[in-house]
UniProtKB/TrEMBL annotation:
Species name: Alkalimarinus sediminis
Coiled coil: none
Segments forming domain EAL: 28-281
Taxonomy, superkingdom: Bacteria
Name of this chain's protein: EAL domain-containing protein
Length: 283
């Protein structure tokens, strides 16, 4: 067939086949199969990316899940999370993410003068699961984690679902004392109107606006607009994906509150996080 014929002409046949639709479907179904055993094989682990203020002082971290699979190697979250959502495995993976990151950061905060605030991404299926609040309550208690030091990050894709149910769950999250952040803001579905109706504490300016802030006047206007709205509504505004000092100084001038990106640190293991914070316990 055409794919076979074409592949003979390319030097890297593996890459070529990954790109064909048939191979993509096969790869995705193998990935779906491997996902089922990922948790019991301990293939998932967490990294933590620092969030700093305008003075460069670390204020918190975002927990980011990683998957090192025995057959497929390293698979990024952008690739496996949509598949885990469709197979139903994301709820259990999300439970692992919450429990592991609460335990890690609770332990970290034990020997730190200024506790870090932990941000955890919550998938749509995880958030909509009927036991979400009950499990979150239980996880906070067993990790002995201060609820006000936890932020859950949700995205605008959630609001395609039943808004009343979502708002009730958000209210329950707030009643626990946990904060709520709207991730990748400006790229999704929600109208600005929704911001005044939801109990949101934080807005994260999407990386795409930060990427282009120095080269595209529209991206710059979006960043400025999001910061202005955030300030008016008394929300913390976070810039994600800050990679250069140029982007940073632009955002500092605009009055952004919190910064996250490779310019400061990549997602780190707990050991590297302790080194980054400079308060590693030596015994
Ligand atoms: P996100 O929540 O918007 O996370 C930010 C992503 O940008 C992370 O990618 C992070 O590593 C990356 N990043 C941060 N700073 C920079 C930078 O300066 N430059 C560049 N190029 N990238 C930067 P990652 O870890 O691959 O995660 C991708 C997405 O997957 C996340 O986007 C989030 O939506 C989802 N995700 C990751 N971990 C979890 C998780 O534990 N649970 C759920 N539900 N979703 C997760
Ligand atoms: Mg996030
Ligand atoms: Mg984000
Ligand atoms: Mg993003």
């Amino acid at each position: 067939d055409l794919a076979m014929h074409e592949s003979k002409k390319t030097r890297n046949t593996t890459i070529y086949f990954k790109d064909s639709i048939k191979e993509r479907v096969l790869y995705d179904s193998e990935l779906g199969q491997e996902l089922k055993y990922g948790l019991e094989r301990n293939e998932f682990y967490m990294l933590y990316q620092p969030k700093v203020n305008a003075q460069g002082v670390i204020k918190g971290v975002e927990a980011l899940v990683r998957w090192q699979n025995q057959a497929l190697g390293f698979v990024g979250p952008d690739k496996f999370i949509p598949i885990a959502e469709s197979t139903g495995d994301m709820v259990a993976i999300g439970d692992f993410v919450i429990d592991k990151s609460l335990a890690d950061i609770a332990a970290f905060n034990c020997h730190s003068d200024t506790p870090l605030v932990l941000s955890v991404n919550i998938s749509v299926k995880q958030f909509l699961h009927p036991d979400f609040i009950e499990k979150l309550t239980h996880s906070l208690q067993s990790a002995n984690f201060e609820p006000c030091n936890l932020i859950i990050e949700i995205t605008e894709t959630l609001f395609i679902e039943d808004i009343f149910g979502i708002n009730e769950t958000l209210a329950q999250v707030k009643r626990l004392g946990v904060q709520i952040s709207l991730d990748d803001f400006g790229t999704g579905y929600s109208s600005l109107n929704l911001l005044t109706k939801l109990p949101i504490d934080e807005l994260k300016i999407d990386k795409s606006f930060v990427d282009d802030i120095l080269v595209d006047a529209n991206a710059k206007s979006m960043a400025e607009g999001i910061i202005a709205i955030g300030k008016k509504l008394d929300l913390i505004v976070v810039a994600e994906g800050v990679e250069t000092i140029g982007q940073l100084s632009e955002l500092v001038d605009m009055g952004c509150d919190i910064y996250q990106g490779y310019y400061f640190a990549k997602p780190l293991s707990v050991d590297d996080l302790e080194a980054f914070c400079g308060d590693k316990i030596t015994t």
